[in-house]
Amino acid sequence: MTQVLAGAEPFAFEGNDIGVLVSHGFTGTPQSMRHYGEQLHRRFGFTVVGPRLPGHGTSPDDMETTGYLDWAREIEQQLKALAARKRKVFITGLSMGGTLTLNMAARFPELVHGIAPIAAAAGPLKREFAGVLALDPAPRRIPGIGSDIKAPGVQELAYAEVPVACMREIAALIAQTGALMGGITCPALVIHGREDHVVPASNALHIVNTLASSDIRLLWLENSYHVATLDNDKDLIAERVGRFFAELAAG
């Protein structure tokens, strides 16, 4: 049995009849979302579930055996389980977790009542990312992308190396999700830092301009980098998303 790193465990906080599914990002762990999930539960009373995606929070070798279908399947299963026991369900996620948030909203509109993608990868890739995918032969690993955080002394629990095979997988997930996004009609609060060194801020504008929803809101973060849920704006995010979901739940 693969050992899970300390701090990378999934979390769940039982609350009211509103469910919130929270997804971490590529090579990251639930550690990056725990404070966010705790705040949504404590301040708004939501039932919050934060799963650990397959291959994450263990080792790069383990991650290398997984792909986007495994990651999406985990979120799909958690979504359906939450929807089976809660009156309304919302999804929010960071980075690839934001991509999965959009993917679920497109594929299961009857289950998802609102979304809040944060620094979501859903459009243009960084030139450096695309460059690695074009290498032939490609390296097996490249240096990690974790801890893009402005706040001093804060660390994300993420892999120090990224399996290039998994980079191909997330590229496929982004492409698939991008093709589905035009069918998303649920309310959306799109959140992105203006200075994000991992996912270009242009992704937020691409999402806003592509969704079919009649209720699309955009929150620019002025004091955070990519891992915004651990950064200077982490409490602002929890407050704005919590209020957004509470407003939708009351409607």
TrEMBL record:
Keywords: Hydrolase. InterPro entries: AB_hydrolase_1, AB_hydrolase_fold, AB_hydrolase_sf, Esterase_lipase. GO terms for molecular function: carboxylic ester hydrolase activity. It comes from the Bacteria. Substrate binds at residues 26, 96. Residues 20-238 form the AB hydrolase-1 domain. GO terms for cellular component: membrane. The active site is at 95 (nucleophile), 196 (charge relay system), 226 (charge relay system). The keyword Hydrolase applies. Pfam families: Abhydrolase_6. The record marks 145 as: Important for substrate specificity. This is Carboxylesterase.
